[in-house]
Design goal:
Number of strands: 12
Helix content: 25-40%
Number of helices: 7
Strand order of the largest sheet: 6-7-8-3-9-10
Shape: globular
Oligomer: single chain
Order of helices and strands: EEEHEEHEHHHEHEHEEEE
Length: 235
């Protein structure tokens, strides 16, 4: 679960990134977080992952209170999360199998556990035939599937996908979103940050819309409000 209550974030340079954010993402939900550049999306992700902390208000992620968390607890918070980036961040000198297994080795998983879990995840994301290939031998969509597999490998409670389709064509983007929906049906909470309104329109999911550090809509539809002009977004 993710819960933000009256959250404000002011950076050291004076930027007021968040101005009283309130929302709860319950276990098992699939949520889109949308909004223009500078609306506060990246700040929310950094708060969830413990990269930064709120100036005011309360942030709770998977039972960790970010207002009170000790530095020694941060690795345990982050193990409960799986993060997918737009630029994949794969290890180019390692195979697909090794990229995924590496995430398990980092937390001390045994060879037996790795041997059992990696093939299962490869099958889940449709990469059975790519285990011995290296990232540069894969298409962009396949590389993003490796990144998703790596995020899933340690069985996180929450997957955060930060612009996961930003480098992909429309067909591959739809494939990745369909895969994330499948992962959600298996019980993992999914939060997708995206600018791609057309893609969001294809999925009947909850949408949290940000603008200027505030939530302007939270539900199955939303709008951006620029000054006095409202542009509806039908999700």
């Amino acid at each position: 679960m993710v819960q933000m209550t009256d959250v404000f974030k002011v950076y050291e340079n004076g930027t007021k990134a968040l101005k009283g954010i309130d929302f709860t993402i319950n276990d098992g939900e699939f949520v889109f977080l949308v909004g223009p550049s500078g609306s506060g999306k990246s700040t929310i992700i950094k708060l969830i992952t413990g990269e930064i902390f709120p100036t005011d208000g309360t942030v709770i992620v998977n039972d960790f209170n970010l207002n009170k968390i000790k530095f020694s607890q941060l690795p345990y918070l982050r193990r409960s999360l799986g993060v997918i980036f737009q630029d994949f961040r794969l290890l180019e000198n390692k195979t697909v199998y090794e990229n995924i297994a590496f995430a398990m080795r980092v937390i001390g998983a045994s060879h037996k556990e790795i041997k059992r879990r990696v093939p299962y995840i490869l099958e889940l994301v449709g990469l059975n035939e790519c285990a011995r290939r290296r990232p540069m031998e894969l298409s962009g969509g396949e590389q993003q599937r490796v990144a998703i597999a790596r995020a899933l490998i340690n069985n996180p409670k929450l997957i955060i996908a930060d612009e996961p389709t930003g480098n992909l064509d429309p067909a591959r983007s739809l494939e990745i979103m369909t895969l994330l929906q499948k992962i959600n049906t298996l019980g993992t909470t999914v939060l997708v940050v995206t600018h791609e309104k057309e893609l969001v329109n294809r999925f009947s999911k909850r949408v949290i819309t940000l603008d200027g550090g505030r939530i302007i809509s939270d539900g199955m539809d939303g709008y951006y409000n620029y000054g006095n002009e409202k542009t509806e977004i039908l999700f």
